[in-house]
Specification:
With 312 residues, this protein is mainly beta. The protein has a domain of 213 residues. It is 4% helix and 56% strand. It has a 14-stranded antiparallel β-barrel with strand order 3-4-5-6-7-8-9-13-15-16-17-18-19-20. The protein has a three-stranded antiparallel beta sheet with strand order 2-1-11, with no helix packed on it. A two-stranded antiparallel ribbon has the order 10-12. Strand 18 and strand 19 form a beta hairpin. It is globular.
């Protein structure tokens, strides 16, 4: 995410760098437990793994003040005919920004053949980004016209996605927010060029049953953002009897990760992930990243109780 302000003084334009430049990968970070939470990026994944509630937390750059933190809550309703409905509440914090997003996801299932299904998803909602300029450590307390247009703002959100799925493979394309939006209002002195731009996500994965007890699940997520490096994240998870999962991940920004999850017989899944920079990476900030996941999946009986059918 890049911030630039333009001064218009006596007909001439002076370009100055405003405060800092944040890597876009910091705030819209990839997620280690992405396969069960892919609806954040692609609404066509909503509800396709059943009805559940999931609470997730990701803290980057451990030990760094103002480092990116992401918390989100997902709730998927039971399937009704060919429709899946989901709700997402997400909070992203980094430095002086505190962003809260609420969305409703609608996902429609289209049966192509006995083994192939197409999902068409749409995401709608909005987000409020609170920017606290008082947290800036300035050299002087004098009035700064460059900060005048910087304030919190609300923007509506509309996203779309598509997913092709078989019992063994899946492919998806999602855009969680379709439109570019200017972040700040211009005034007579300052012209701004700070915008929120669309993110494009391409994902694919497979499930290989090695035997009756073990399965292997590779997943690849490709993210593309305007004027920012593309990010490719690969994870491979080994699952034992659908209850114990151990996995690793790698991304092209030289991040390495390990994660595990445990599922109880009552449908509760607890997961933890640890991500760190490759030692050969000379990036100044190399703090570790911690990710937690707590998920409760409703049983078939509970789903029927939540979504009673009316006969007759």
């Amino acid at each position: 995410m890049h911030y630039y302000l333009y001064y218009n003084l006596k007909g001439s334009f002076l370009t100055t760098l405003f405060l800092f430049t944040l890597n876009a990968q910091a705030q819209e970070a990839h997620i280690l437990f992405s396969q069960s939470n892919m609806s954040i990026y692609n609404p066509a994944f909503t509800g396709t793994q059943g009805s559940f509630v999931s609470l997730n937390s990701r803290s980057q750059w451990s030990g760094v003040d103002g480092a990116p933190k992401t918390n989100y809550l997902l709730y998927f309703l039971p399937k009704k005919k060919n429709v899946y409905i989901g709700f997402t509440a997400q909070n992203d914090r980094v430095f002086i920004e505190d962003k809260i997003t609420f969305t409703i996801d609608y996902n429609y299932e289209v049966k192509i053949s006995q083994s192939q299904t197409l999902f068409l998803g749409i995401k709608g909602g909005g987000y409020f980004n609170n920017i606290n300029v008082d947290r800036l450590q300035r050299l002087t307390s004098d009035y700064n016209p460059a900060l005048a247009p910087v304030s919190g703002y609300y923007k509506p959100l509309l996203g779309v996605g598509i997913q092709w799925k078989t019992p063994q493979y899946f492919l998806g394309i999602g855009v969680p927010s379709l439109f570019s939006r200017k972040r700040f209002q211009d005034n007579e002195i300052i012209k701004t060029k700070a915008t929120d731009v669309p993110y494009f996500y391409f994902s694919g994965g497979a499930t290989y049953n090695l035997n009756t007890s073990f399965s292997l699940e590779p997943v690849v997520v490709f993210r593309s953002i305007q004027n920012s490096p593309d990010l490719i994240t690969t994870t491979v998870a080994l699952t034992y009897q659908k209850q114990f999962t151990l996995g690793s991940g790698f991304s092209n920004n030289q991040n390495l990760a390990f994660f595990f999850s445990i599922k109880s017989i009552k449908g509760v899944t607890l997961g933890y992930g640890y991500e760190f920079m490759n030692r050969n990476n000379k990036t100044a900030i190399q703090g570790a990243t911690h990710e937690l996941m707590l998920r409760f999946k409703f049983t078939e009986k509970e789903e029927k109780e939540e979504s009673p059918r009316k006969d007759g």
